[in-house]
Design brief:
About 60% of the residues lie in helices and about 5% in strands. A three-stranded antiparallel sheet has the order 1-2-3, with helices on one face. It starts with 11 loop residues before the first helix and ends in an 8-residue tail after the last helix. It is mainly α. α1 packs parallel to α8, α5 crosses α7 and α6 packs across α7. It is built from eight helices and three strands, in the order αβββααααααα.
Amino acid sequence: MSSSKSDEWMPRHYRDLKELSIEHIASSEVGPRCWGMSIETFPRPYVKHLSSAASKYRLAKHCYGLLGPSDEARAAAGIAPDFFDKYSSQALIMLSFVAFETHLRMLGTTWQKFPVERCGLDIRSIAEAVREDLGEEALTALAKAMDQDKLKNRIDKFLNGDDREFLAVVSALRNSFSHGKMGVSKSVSPSCAIETKEFMLDLIKCDAELISRSLREQDAALLVV
């Protein structure tokens, strides 16, 4: 299997997924869909939203935070020492969750329907880290800041120990930053933001590799058409 030069910028797991998906559709009679992905044929075969997913993944992976001013310039402007660290933490959460959402858009689904357990990652550890880092006060404030009752309820479940609702908390953190619903006083710490980002990117990578593996094996039980 060889990739075109135009695809060389893509992370390997997305490059493989693109080639395998197009090959599978070309050699089957099931129509232009597999695993919820849509295969477009004009002007040449491509997987709908895959390039966008790969681009968002790459951005999140190689972003390490916001570049703040020098200490002298920051002090002159009256900016608190940890101001940029806290906003950087929120930005990392946002970028990693946007990458995840775009990955799921490619698959024709949403985070609410995504079975985290199928990737075999240790969600308990990251859930405990986020729960401990934010604490009850910040998680309660985060739930109150959300407009959707279902999302509020899911955050409450997470606060009460349901690790499966980790994605709900990350979604809420993303929303609170992008929509200005919360400031930085109850922000996730830089170390926890990095840990969360790495988990989200691992989740994307593992999921793409799982789909590619099923396509290689032509496993009829795993293929969704």
